[in-house]
């Protein structure tokens, strides 16, 4: 059983790396961002409530995301492990996760912090394109799809996420500093935190993360 958290600012590559680790280790990727976007697309009550926060780059209230993560973690496919991507994002979420994993007889084995220079984050997020079908991520310059506008994996259309626009990105980065960065200290104190410099080749970063996971 490997319980993994990927921590890092928007644009650090959490989604990209979580997908790769998920398939390498055969464990589910739990992305609160993906789950919330799906709820928005399906116009569920939760999606309708979350949309306003997401569009303005704010965090969705803790009780909402904690609820969806608790449900997801109790599914049978999480018994062999899981990789959390984009959760927790606040100290209360991290505390709720501790309680939930304890109650479910699960644990967090390693927290990997992806570190990227602030200026690079802006460039990455502005050029990011996401498949509207399978969620695969590309970058117009650094990681383009083979056919422009089409996903290499599933042929879906590549779109710019509503919150990957410059004004919203600023708000997301400010919220990261204020609410999420304190988690580095939180998990640093628990002795489970490892940092990875997440600039450069995507493959090399995956290899480093994978090595860290194998070592616990
Ligand atoms: P992401 O795809 O992880 O960048 O998340 C996109 C948006 O979903 C964020 O900007 C938040 O509005 C919302 N969101 C995702 N995960 C969380 C979380 N753990 N706590 C609060 N809001 C979240």
Describe the protein's architecture and organization.
With 216 residues, the protein is α/β, with parallel strands linked by helices. It has a domain at 2-116 and 179-214: P-loop containing nucleotide triphosphate hydrolases (Rossmann fold, 3-Layer(aba) Sandwich). Helix content is 48%, strand content 16%. It has 9 helices and 8 strands. The chain has a 5-stranded parallel β-sheet with strand order 2-3-1-4-8, with helices on both faces. A hairpin with a 5-residue loop joins strand 5 and strand 6 (137-139). Helix 1 crosses helix 9 (202-214), helix 2 crosses helix 3 and helix 4 packs parallel to helix 5 (91-103). The longest helix is centred in the C-terminal third of the chain and has 15 residues, at 166-180. It is globular, with a radius of gyration of 16 Å. It starts with a strand and ends with a helix. It binds adenosine monophosphate (AMP). The site of adenosine monophosphate has 17 residues, from helix 2 and helix 3.
